Structures are given as structure tokens and as C-alpha cells.
Amino acid sequence: MKPGEKVAADGIILDGETYLNESLLTGESKPVRKMKGDKVIAGSINGNGAIKVTVSHAAKDSYLSQVVNWSMRHKNQNPKPSCWRIRQQDG
User: Fold this and answer.
1) What dotted CATH number matches 11-90?
2) pTM for the predicted model, two decimal places
């Protein structure tokens, strides 16, 4: 994987070292240093180094898929702020 490319699937670095921008996935504001043996998340952006990655599991089991599934399961469980309920009653 060359610098600037998007990680296509969750996997493990087989060779190389880089910094990955995971901000859209994890909220981490700074690129994260990754080296041989570290996990990578699909959708991360490769920074300055070339790395060789092996896919660790299918897309349906990816980090991003798990976040989406969790979000869908829990979206109706969080109570809405009271100001939303008041506006709905008034409106």
C-alpha cells in the first residue's frame, strides 16, 4: 500500500511502517503510528510510508461494520433531550 492510499479492508501489517489517519473512524485527531504486526482499519488513510497488509476478516466483520451495527441497535434506546420533546408537542 502506497502513501496516500485508503486502507481497503481491516488487516494486519506484514511489512513496513507508516502513520494512518483514522480520524473519520475513531475520532483520533492525529495520525497513528503503525508498524509490522499492528492492526489497520478499513477506511483509514495511509500517511507517509509504504506498508504490506494482509486482510484479517471479511467486510461484514470489519470495525466499521461493527460500529454501524452497534449504532443501528442503539439508536432508539437513547432518550431525546427534553427540548426536542417540548418542540414536538408544540409543533
Assistant:
1) 2.70.150.10
2) 0.69
